[in-house]
Amino acid sequence: MDPVSGRMPSNEHTCLMPTSAPATPLRVVLVGNPNTGKSTVFSALAGVRQRVGNYPGVTVEKKTGQLKHDGLTLELIDLPGTYSLAPHSPDEMVAVEVLLGRLAGWPAPDVVLSIVDASNLERNLFLVSQVLSLGLPTVIGLNMTDLAHQRGIDINVPLLAERLGVPVVAIQANRRIGLQHLTRVLATTAKQNSHPGAGQGTPQNERENPFPAHFRQLAAELAECLNVGRDQPLPPFLVERILLDGGNYLERKLLDHASAAQMERLHAARQALAEAGTPMPAVEAMARYDWIARLLEGVVSRPDSPQQTTSDRIDIILTHKVWGTLVLVGVMALLFSSIFVFANPLMELVDFGVGRLADGVKGLLPPGALRSLLVDGVIGGVGAVLVFLPQILILFFFIAVLEDCGYMARAAFLMDRLMAGVGLSGRSFIPLLSSFACAVPGIMAARVIENRRDRLATIMIAPLMSCSARLPVYVILIGAFVPARSYLGGLVGLQGLTLLAMYAIGIFTAVLVAWLLKRTLLRGETPPFVMELPGYKMPSGRLVLQRMVERGWGFVRRAGTVIFAVTIVVWALAYYPRAQQRVDEVIDRQRTALVVATQQASPGSPAHAEAIGRLAQFDEPHQHEHLDASLHQRYSLLGQAGQWIEPAVRPLGWDWRIGCAAIASFPAREVVMGVLGVIYHLGPELDVSDQADQNQLQQRLHLARWDDTGKPVYNIPVALSLMVFFALCAQCAATLAVIRRETGSWRWPVFTFSYMTALAYVGALLTYQVGIRM
Amino acid sequence: MTSPSDQPAQEVTQLAKLELGGRGRIVRVSGNGDVSRRLLEMGVTPGVEVHLLRAAPLGDPLEFEIRGYRLSLRRGEAEKIDIEIL
Fold first, then answer.
1. Using a CB-CB distance cutoff of 8 angstroms, which residues of chain A are in contact with residue B80?
2. Are strands B62-66 and A300-301 parallel, antiparallel or unpaired?
3. ipTM of the complex
4. Is-above-0.95 flag for pTM?
5. If we measure between CA atoms, which residue out of A455, A351, A441 comes closest to residue A397?
6. Between the CA of residue A621 and those of A356, A618, A624, A686, A692, what are the distances in Å?
7. Which of A5, A210, A722, B40 yields a CA-CA distance of 20 to 30 A from A692?
8. CB distance B42–A289 less than 8 Å?
9. CATH number, domain at B24?
């Protein structure tokens, strides 16, 4: 064992079998600004050997990968893109702890790979400066050298490497240029620094520490004082940060057990800095950028007059007052039409497949609990959600393309003023926009929002954007109950207006909720909008597809677990208890009544013909089955629950059947129409997207009557109240599951469900009560 | 906090008041909160030249060129930055 690094040497056997045990894997951590192509580098190096996981206690994604090179294994960890290593929250702290090896189970990296955008050296070197001060073996990956060259920027790479004191490798990650060399350099650098005498553990650039002398002095003294009585000494980097970052997160986290004397020392140090006229926290930025300026002198040459790049030319259009807005509207339109144009055929395919599977299982098993469980419960339920997979994949694809090519930032730039009025920022625009198609990708896209409170607020209101699952509800109910009047000479139809109104209700409520949240639960300082507008680049097909597949798979996994569980529960509620005898009795009674009616009417009279007709209709194939299904549902736990809550939903204008359907649609909104179909004797095979089936359902709705009064159940106010309920409710297990994943706790999905259900109830109540009085 | 230029002749104003297409040199970034910290990290430091490219259609935010890249700031944020007009 190597006494300094603790690493085992690679075995050299003298035995017969020519095996060599693999050397311990080298740990490589990737850091870099956003938009430097770091993810592309990571993907290119790790290939398919990537895993996404979670760090405990935070919502940051843990991206790890593996790379084999020359008999060595390199373990890669991709940290989130950041502009600075100053931690202000647990999420940001994770990156620092991984780098310092302070995270339980994560020893310090063997080498840090810092990805730098060649056409943006100055700002990128700020992070590099911080990384270097960690004292770890470091390699710089100078990426996007082609773009820099296009802009006329010339970098003397060897000189840069010399001045920085670390290897600098020029690469073009998207074209896979320079990556082999980079891997070799990584391996060499890591190994070099594990040998005794390489000064491991001392900051590589101690002599280059950019801070003014008095700061360094105070930091060193403070470190000595704070490390008294600590079994794990604070590295110099963290001590400097405590001094700089002025009494917030870091101080609370690291010094919660500090003695009064230690805290006194800290305050004294800060006092001394203030007295010396040190601008805090500006001293860090000024010191580091001064260092950068000196470093880059003679290393970078720019053209005298900045050349207008393709990026600049595109930007003139895309951020233009008129053209920019038009393009944005165009992008929005494309996003939506893609759902309906591309997704639909695929969705039908999935639907078909699921249907065939269901038929197959039905054929194999005898009727009974197991068959119903598998067909109606499992396949029906999970299938109803999987049908949305094509739509979700397409959305993920579009969002990934927009992110990768750089347009996301422009969209945020254009919409910020509007969003700021609500208390959010332009970054919330694309996530909320996507939620109009489906909240699942929208909520996941909210990751780009750095500020935790903003991100939460966006996630909380995303489900209020009327998603495409609500559309069948709107279409059927509007088609059945809203008169097809038109105004302005046929331009504006009442039905279309009602549809628009439903969307508007969602948006209006979302604005209100966001405003409220920002005033109460998520109150705080307005977060900075300071945002980089990266240069445009061709999205990397590989990366986009990878992201799409990764997130799509995440959705499927969730569909397989949470939704599966919920669907089984709802199925059981709708299936049990089996009251077959009672159902048979009821069917018999109904038939007998019809038969008696035919016998009582005098033959040849119109009453007789009518009675015969009704009996014939009753005896039509499938009618018994449908009636059977409907009655079973009524006597099931679900049906009983529906009847039990009827008093609560009467003020909304609903009868128990509608209440039942609302409960049953908890896993997925689109299920409600199918459930109503079963309730109204149309059988479980009702296809909501089929026009004919839709018409049938609409007819049944018209015919529905209250059990006690015999009055029609459905009229315009009832239809509206049902639509408003569905506009505002959170009946989507997939969305709640995603919220759980993105926020890291069950608190927020529970909160979302509660507040939305309450809003939906009140909204439906108001709609009905106002509606019947108009 | 020293200003890099000591000629009193240069006009000092806020970045938010810069004309479209105008250039300025940063004199000071005031404030102590998240916004100023973020500005400093992104390279908005005293002595740096900044060029206002355009405003968003609704007048806010503003797009600047600084240290060779494009930065978008809200007017409220640009008000925290003192510059001298070039």
1. none
2. unpaired
3. 0.90
4. no
5. A441
6. 22, 9, 7, 15, 18
7. A722
8. no
9. 2.30.30.90
